[in-house]
Known about the structure:
Strand order of the largest sheet: 5-4-3-6-7-9-8
Order of helices and strands: HHHHHEEHEHEHEHEHHEHEE
Radius of gyration: 21 Å
Shape: elongated
Mean pLDDT: 92
Helix content: 40-55%
Number of helices: 12
Number of domains: 2
Largest sheet: 7 strands, mixed
Strand content: 15-25%
Number of strands: 9
CATH class of the largest domain: Alpha Beta
Amino acid sequence: MNAIDKLKEVSAFLESQGIEDAAKEAEIFITETLHIGKSKLYSGSFEISEDTSKQIDALTSRRAEGEPLQYIIGHVDFYGLKINVSRGVLIPRPETELLVEEAIKLLKETPPHPPLSKGGQRGVKILDLCTGSGCIAIALAKRLPEAHVYGIDKSDTAIQYAIQNATKNNIKNVHFIKGDLFEPVTAHCSLFTVHCFDCIVSNPPYIKTADIQGLQREIKDYEPVEALNGGEDGLDFYRRIFENAHKFLKETGIIILEIGHGQADDVGKIAMNAGFKNVTFIKDYAGIKRILVGRFK
């Protein structure tokens, strides 16, 4: 069978199963299975075997049952990196790239003291809480090669994937530690001291417990609930983060957090009550206040 014919077949099947971007996903399944680029696919000259056609059918059947595309192909593109994911690891979202962009911009614009060497990153310490796949920590470590980045997550699966992703992307200046929020920072006193971080970042769980069952099936049935559930009002992790952030963040440090739709006012109040006098928000592409930036001054 010609690859173009298979593309049309898969696209029609996915569309019949209610998959929104059926044509795009069909293209991904076929190019990933055949290990070819889009140009070769659309040249119309590539033939596929019956066995390969069956492999593609197996993938599309999984998608029709609701399994996320990223879990099926095993990876997602994030900030120019290929990040491996599977069930048990939250899938990185495009809006989280905004957090990475903001952190890079602020750390380059306002480097910590004393003055740093060329590039403005020597000695910068960054803490990524609820690191998951490690996508934020790895992206920051790549763009700030003289920084020291630490990612923490309480999930064994997440930490395993984070380490794997750092190795896969050849990132050396990031370290992952298993634990619950700041607990490993306190435990590893040989690595960390009080007020040692220049920046704390996090994309914590922020979905209200009661809202989880109303999410898309790709999310509620497949992604780890512990990476979604932010408690009754969705704010549990923000309270815990801000309760302790002042112990570990430098006086000149920055905290940068992703927040859910409609949470800006509540999380902003939590931040200010914790001593962050300068609190601003960055809107995502839909105009939603998605990223909180907090400073002590």
